[in-house]
Structures are given as C-alpha cells and as structure tokens.
Amino acid sequence: MLEKIGNALKSSIKKISNSLFVDKKLVDEIIKDIQRSLIEADVNVQLVFELSQKIRKLALDETIKGIEKKEQLIKLIHDEIQALLGEKKELQISGKTKILFLGLYGSGKTTSIAKLAFYYSKRGKKVAVLGLDTQRPAAMDQLEQMAEKAKVQAFIDKKEKNPLKIYKKYKKELEDFDLVLIDSAGRDGLNKDLIKEIKDIEKETKPDYRILVMPADIGQAAKTQASEFQKALSIDGVIITRMDGTAKAGGALTACAETRAPVFFIGTGERIDELETFDPSSFISRILGMGDLNALLEKVSSATTEKQQKRIEERMKEGKFTLLDLYEQLKSMNQIGSFDKLMSMIPGIGNAKIPENVLQSQEGKVKHWKNAIDSMTEEEIENPEILEKQTARIQRISKGSGTTTGEIRELLKQYKMIKSMMTSGMAEKAQEGGLSQKDMMKLARKFKGKIKI
Description:
By secondary structure, this protein is an alpha/beta fold.
C-alpha cells in the first residue's frame, strides 16, 4: 500500500539522519522526493505545495541548530503526512446499532458490508445484513452469497422492488440483532433519484451511522464524491476499498480528511477478513516500515473465535499440546494472510530486506505441514510420538499428502520444540505477561536455531 510514498519518506528520513548538517541542497532534494511521491499517489497538488512550504520554512530556520533541527524536521514530515490523512475515529457499536451503506456502482459496497459483518461477528456481535438495493441486477444474490461467507443472516426479498416495503417486512425480526448492516442502491453518479431513494430509506430505517464506500483508485475525484454525499446525506464516515492494488490511494485518503469525513476502515484484499480499522498513525508507521502491531492483533482476532482462543489458553495452562492444536494454529495463520503482509506489521521487521523466495518458501512449508496433518489418523494426531517409533507411518503419510518424509520429520521436530515450551510453563507465563528477563534468556538459549518459522 502506497509503497512509493513509504519509500520516499524512508529515503528522506535516512538522508536527514545521515547528513552532517541541513543545507539548502539537502532540503531541495528531500522536498522534490516527497512532492513526486505524493503527486504520484494522487494527493491534491495544493496540499503537496503547502506541505513543501512548511518543510522548507523549518529546514531553513536559522534559530534551530544541529541535531535538534534534524529531529524536528523528521518529526514535521511524519506529523504533516499524518495530518493529511486526518484523525482516527472509530465506530461506536453499543446496544442496537444500524448502519446504512452508501456508494456508487463498483465501489465495493456489498463486499464491504460482508467484511464488516464478519469483523463484528468475530467480536461477539449478533449481526444481520439487510438488502435494500432493488436496482442492481443480482445485488440480492451477491449479498446472500457474501453473508454466507461471513456466516451471518441475510434478510432479502428478490421479488419486491420497493426497498421500504422490504424493510417493513423484516423490521420486527431485525430487532433481535445487535448490529444491522443495510445495503442500498447505487448509480453511475449521485443524481436526484438516488438521493431521494436513500433519503427515504434513511427516514424509514433511522440508521445510527451512514457510511460511504469508495474505491482507493478513484483518485482526486474522491473529494467531489465525498463532498456531494456529505452535502446530500450527511455521511458519518467512509470505508475505502481496494487499498491492496493501487498506488493512487493518496487521493481518496486525503480527500476524506479534507471533507471531514473520517475513514473508519480500509479494505486490503479480496478475502472476507481483509478489512482493517484505519488509524493514520499506525498507517504511517507501516508505510515507513515501522510495523503496526494493532493491525496484526486485529487480524489474529478475526482469524480465531473467542471459543478457539479460550481453548488455546486452557490447553496452554494444562501443558497439553497435540498436532491438532498445532494444526489449528496453522489454519489461523493461513486465515490471517500471507507471510509478507504479516512481516510488514511486525515492528522492526517491516524494514528488513527479507528475500521474497524465503517468505514463499515458509508459506509453502506451512501448506505442506497442513496437508500432512490432514493425512494422519486421529491416534497419530493426538500422539505424534508413535510416528517416530513406527516410521512406516511416516512413509504412508508422505505418500498420502504429497509431502516428503523430511518435511514430516521437520514438522515433528517443530512440534516437539513448541510442546517443550508449553510443558515448561513458559507459555503460561507469557500469556499472563510474566516472562522475566531470565526466562527470556533461558528460552533464547534453549531454542536458538531450532525453531524454523
């Protein structure tokens, strides 16, 4: 996401840090790099010019000397880029909440509804989706399919063409849910008919939030669209989709800040779990290669249910750990996303130059391990020690799963390492946040060079 901006900012900060002093030549070079990257990302030219003026003014201020000037300059660049993205604002879901979704054709509105439904259902909310888009062919079918993926209930009526009648039909049933996400019609543009229909729906449904869905690649046209929706319907915030495949996201992000329409979430991929809360500070940290632990923890929460998390904790406290537990962890990792996405979220690793083939190799290894566990009997999963005593079993599993015997032996080795940590009581201490420096050193000595992923 916004890789060019990230690279330009990292390069600028590195140049400032490595310079003996800040002179006009360095300042011009830094400003040029930042201007180029921001304009390529579709950030408004006037905003880019204002940012450049602020950087130049501070950099050439003779009253600030030496190291202090370098530090202030780095902080200014960070803070001003963050200011371009606006302040963090979160949805407050408490009691019975209804959200009305707005957006033009092709914005990703229906997909975003399903992603948000999945996001909140994983956090213990009873969620339903309501289809009131009676204009677009197959809109109801798409919502129904996406709701199935998110494992939430969909209320639709494929025959009725009046959205208000559909709402009235299901109004009583919807009262049983904590959160109701309402899909509305879109158009090629924001015209009078669309405004009237959405206003009628808004008046009837009385939503707590009105959220506009916009694609990242809309560029600077986002400002006009956000302003028009804001004026017509008083939107409460925005979800920006397609953040994974565009370098033009700067236009959509900064336009929202300009129109005072906060970005609540960003869509980072096609999968149902690829939706993140938008925190400008964390976002800047990630594009600078400084990681984003909050986003990583969100992904972990989305990948595992409360029931699964509780089971893991109980198993850790009991010191029990089988290949089934390891398998559940591998499945969760697969749901969280690719290794390179995970690496970018871990502070201190985002900047590391890890060869792409290494990450792909690790992903391939995890897939093979999952295949191997799928080919095992229940007895082998619960008591993997018997595999080392009866090596014919390893040969059978290898043939059945399309893996090598070496890969299965490596899986067993990693399992033994992890189980050793679990039964030593270290895992329980870690869960409770009680690992001392001595414990950490002991772990480091014990597992140094042994755990491969």
